[in-house]
Amino acid sequence: MSLLDYENQMFLDAFHEDGLLVTAKGLGIDRILKNFIKVHCDPANLVLVLNVSSTEVDYLTEQLEIEGVKPLPKVITNEYNASDRQSIYLQGGVLFITSRILVVDLLTDRVPIDHVTGILVYKAHKIIDSCQEAFILRLYRQKNNTGFIKAFSDSPESFTSGFCQVERVMKSLFVRKLFLWPRFHANVVSCMEQHQIDVVEVQLHLTPAMMACQSAILDLINACLKELKRCTPAIDSDEVTVENALTRNFDQVLRLQLDPIWHQLGPKTKQLVSDLKTLRLVLRHLTQYDCVTFYSLVKSIRSSEKTFGQNSGWLFLDAADSLFVHAKERIYGPEDTMKKAKVAEETTRQQENRVPILEQCPKWEALSEILAEIEEENVKQGLSSSQGRTLIAAEDDRTCTQIKDYLCEGGSTILARMYNKYVALKLGLQEVSEKKELDKYPNKSKGRGKMTKKPVEKPEQSSCEYTLTQMVGKIDDNTSSRANPEGNEGLQLSSQDAYYGILSSPAVVVHPLHGCSDHQGLMRTLQEVQPRYVILYDADMQFVRQLELFKCTRPGLPLRVYFVMYTGSTEEQRYLTTLRKEKEAFEYLIRTKATMVIPEERDGKAGDAPNLARDSTPASETVSSRKGAVEKPQEQRVIVDMREFRSELPSLIHRRGIEIEPVTLEVGDYIITPEMCIERKSVSDLIGSLNNGRLYNQCVSMCRYYRRPILLIEFDPTKSFSLQGKYDVSREVSIQDVTSRLTLITIHFPKLRILWCPSPYATAELIQELKIGRDQPDGATAMTVTAAEEELEWSDRYNHGPQDMLLKMPGINSRNYRQVMNKVESIAELSSLSQEYLTELLGNSGNAESLWKFLHQQGGVIEESTNQKPSYKKNSKSNFHGKGNKSSR
Questions:
Q1: CATH number of the structural domain spanning residue 779
Q2: How many domains does the chain have?
Q3: What is the C-alpha to C-alpha distance for residues 712 and 689, in angstroms, rounded to an integer?
Q4: 263 in a structural domain
């Protein structure tokens, strides 16, 4: 599929020069990435693609396969071993690869880095200087200064937070150019105007009760925000507003501001944050779901004793009373109607069981009218169901389910069913049968009849009054037969989130906008269904742009979009705020680009980029002035366990001029010297390891093989934590207490050192300081150390003192010391053995000679040895056998 004019310009800008491409949401950043992959799908190239999820990989591969691209990109996962990965690298082409696998292969020289054509980085707004992708790019630029680096992002807002955010990202990406493509770019506007969509705006008004509920909720949110600002002066008043509280990411913005001081906040402030989250949920339910769901939510909040007793005070405001009254009004009608109903009832029980009115959603009726209009137009134009397909895009799966139920059963039916389920049963009332409810509450939906009650075995064979078909359910990829209305036998939907087969004429597909199991599911459905009509049940900026792009790429096909929205509602304001924030983000980036000063060596191709420089000399290391010659600095090295590459610490260690050697370690996480081993834990890992006993086994292994074992605990200084409860302070040692277990660890392992570090940056600095003046570790030796459970039990059967002494002797290593302790009773017995017997015992003549000389050499004279066999001395002070220092676990 060819690119549009503005997409061609995007592609050419990024193709000719390395840089960061930032586009507006929905303008086709995935199409640009796909074309870069398409261009380099050749064995003569070796291009690596980073930061792409598995669903995105599947989508891109499918699109390339449709366009006939060969060979297709390969996907490298942990299913391939090291040798297989190395051979795949040598085959060339485009490779999708996880960052953890690639950084290990780069450090072990499995990747022919000199032959790498370039690297494509997707979702570049997530790149920070300590992440794995930044580590990969730094390793790449150190050994390859000719390959390209292209970065892509469609989240301009992410580059505006923090200090010089876009400059920091570009520094980590090793790029100098910034390409900006907002929706208001002249080329984009020109392209979209040439292929305009037929848009029908359906402006709805909230019912009086809904409007009253909305006003009450906004007043409550405003009151909570004012109180929050009063209690927390450090909060940013410009960001914490009622308008921003309507957006999706407001909770995240609020927590980012409060996280550094969260442990200093009082209970009232924390409760205000929780109440704001609750009120935002209530506001979303008002415009998103039906009256019964909304009333059930507000009623549960009010009736909950925990919430009622622990709220910040908003439940006692007049606005809260107004919210509850008008939410109830949507169920039972205005107050005067309810009073008349009470007079008409005869018994007290009937007085409590008022006849519900059950106000229907205005969008439901509008949806019925739109579908009736579509069906009428298809009949006039003589279009079949396959030619006049309709796609309904709603907010989430719950909304899609309600739309499906409404179109199949009618609004009154599902409202009555939900009323019986959520309201009537809680009051202890008997559930009314569906037929009785339908007689009492006539169907108000226009153009849609109710479902017939004829029992059917197969959903495909069901029939309804006025062309309704029974919904089969959610599409399953493993199901071969799908619900295909008449004339649509060849249509197959790959998205698991789509509802299909609701109506036979027009053919309707319902798909959620957010919360999908497949992030590309909506685009898949759009391409597979090829709809003539699209109903935007809920507004979404990104999908609107995708529809514009869909129309531009298919200029000959008609497309009509019905834009359904509540006028003067928070739904409308949320959509407008999203547009405004993206526009302001691009304006900020444009101003930043105009004033940004980027050094020529930023891209690292000259080999002297500032972001390639590594601090190889610690601040505490001094050079002696008495040395006459300049010594070549020793290469610093740290052995790192493979599993640790999920964290950012290896990258930070490498930035300090220390080489990283990745191996599979059974004992410890980091070997920084031949004698020093580090087991790294977060606070949550520490508590879990203490509770399940795993930390004890790890300490046993470290103390057995390393002279200086270290338990390093990392914590976040901006977040509070506690190793014991608020009222658990006691002088007695309890095995259930975390602090007691940690104390027992320190008692049982006196060699163990416990270090606390406030961040990975501090940990990297500490490791650099600990390595000063010490030897470098050996990866091969570290890999021989094993921590199998049977070995721990075996070692505890012997005295630890003689074991430690034996392991320090020349010729003794982790492979042969077991054989010695099984065959020899004590060190005294060992010294009486002949060199020939030691050779037989150790299995190596060199090790036997080293040990024999060490045991028998005194003052340079070799004593004459005996040829006797070992005889056991039961009472030797240096016996290996005996009761070990086994501690209670």
A1: 3.40.50.10130
A2: 5
A3: 13
A4: yes
305: phi > 0 → left, psi -120 to 50 → alpha, else beta; which?
alpha
Q: Angle between the 267-288 and 570-595 helix axes, to the nearest 10 degrees?
A: 110
67 and 103 share a domain?
A: yes
Joined together, the tokens standing for residue 311 give: 């709220």
Instruction: Give yes or no for a contact between 748 and 887, defined as CB atoms under 8 angstroms apart.
Output: yes
> Residue 819 belongs to what H/E stretch?
helix 817-823
Q: What is the H or E stretch that residue 663 is in?
A: strand 659-663
Domain that holds residue 61: 5-194
Residues 253 and 125 in one domain: no
**177 contacts 20 by C-beta, under 8 angstroms:** yes
Q: Would you say residue 711 lies in a domain?
A: yes
17 by Cβ neighbours in 10 Å (0-12 / 13-18 / 19+) ranks as middle
Residue 370 near residue 202 (C-beta atoms within 8 A): yes
Burial 840-854 (b: 16+ CB within 10 A, else e): ebbebeebbbbbbee
Compute the chain's Rg from CA coordinates: 35
Q: Are 297 and 278 in contact (CB under 8 A)?
A: no
Whether the CB-CB separation of 236 and 257 falls below 8 Å is answered with: yes
Please check whether residue 434 lies inside any domain of the structure.
no
One domain for residues 312 and 400: no
How far is Cα 769 from Cα 620, in angstroms, rounded to an integer? 8
Q: Which two tokens stand for residue 660?
A: 């990283």
pLDDT single digits (tens) 172-218:
999 999 999 999 999 999 999 999 999 999 999 999 999 999 999 99
Is residue 183 domain-resident? yes
pTM of the model: 0.77
Collect the ranges in the chain with pLDDT lower than 70.
1, 162-164, 305-311, 335-354, 423-465, 467-491, 504-505, 607-633, 718-736, 787-800, 814, 858-878, 880-889
Condensed to tens digits (0 to 9), the pLDDT of residues 577-628 reads 999 999 999 999 999 999 888 877 777 777 555 556 566 555 444 444 454 5
Beta bridge partners of 97: 76
Axis-axis angle for helices 541-553, 570-595 (nearest 10)? 70
Please check whether residue 272 is in contact with residue 293, taking contact to mean a CB–CB distance below 8 angstroms. no
- Two tokens, residue 415: 């409202």
Q: Using alpha carbons, select from 530, 511, 531 the residue that is nearest to residue 522.
A: 511
Same domain, 267 and 399: no
Last residue of a domain, one of 147, 168, 194: 194
Domain finish residue from 169, 194, 219 = 194
DSSP single-letter state for residue 458: S
